[in-house]
Fold Protein-arginine kinase.
Amino acid sequence: MSLERFISQAVSSWMSEDGPDSDIVLSSRIRLARNLSEINFPTLATNEESGKVIETIEDRISKGPAPGFGKMELLKMDDIKPLQKRVLVEKHLISPHLAENAPHGAFLLSENEEISIMINEEDHIRIQCLFPGLQLTEALEAANLIDDWLEENINYAFDEHYGYLTSCPTNAGTGLRASVMMHLPGLVLTRQMNRILPAINQLGLVVRGIYGEGSEALGNIFQISNQITLGKSEEDIVEDLNSVVSQLIAQERSARGALQKTSNIQLEDRVFRSYGTLAHSRIIETKEAANCLSDVRLGIDMGYIKDIPRNILNELMILTQPGFLQQYAGGPLSPDERDIRRAAFIRERINMEKNQ
């Protein structure tokens, strides 16, 4: 398969499209956790009960698609190969938990991959909407429409006092997790992130790496999400996160401006050294690639590099992950082989853009 065709099939809309403030905010995600009443939650459910949850969702689909979202395809984890699961996790379409610990799980996926509904993960249903740029409010509206569509034929586990009941108490109430993925190289290079992170945590938010809990913030990419779901409305949760993200956007832009004013030639040199590494390396590890991609994206956003659109850096942040490299290669690769493939993939992608 040609690289161009592979990318066209592999790239989700949040990777390839611009959104509000997309120079800093890569994506916005809303996730709603729901459970069916009268069926044990997944942590205690039998195989028969897990099967019944999938049958309930299949029955809902048979009555017609969600208005405005088109047809969704139901995929069962038992039918998906391990490498394919890894790719789905790298695209942020399913969670590592569903891929690794839910043999009786499944998921619904919209054609443009903005909507993903995980089944029998930690909860019976997890509705996920993933949009490019800062679009938390729009993603919440979409998630609520999907939620209403499901609830027309499904009885949720709900308590008048505690709200939606979930396997983990920290998700009870609204069942909402709102998050944004941000590229913050300016704050990292000016050494402000160590001061900002504790302040964000004190506001009831959590900062993680690109793949969520337990992952490293590779390439200066951070996920910021709410911790509290009980006692606050969905709108309040999103409004609070939007407010913090807007302040971070302003601080990141200020940091970039300060770098350009006080260290312009050093910053430009850093950008083009990283660009040279990506354009010419024959072997490159994940961490080095992520850091170089971060520098080059910063260089594009600040006008140093003009012949490459920023969106290909969004793509490469995901497409150079181990699962994608092996998918493109057509089979398993050793770590050394992946590093060689990663370098070749990046070189070819950059050249493809320059030759257009």
In short: The mean pLDDT is 89. DSSP finds 14 helices and ten strands in the chain. Residues 261-355 form one domain. The two ends are 19 Å apart (CA to CA).
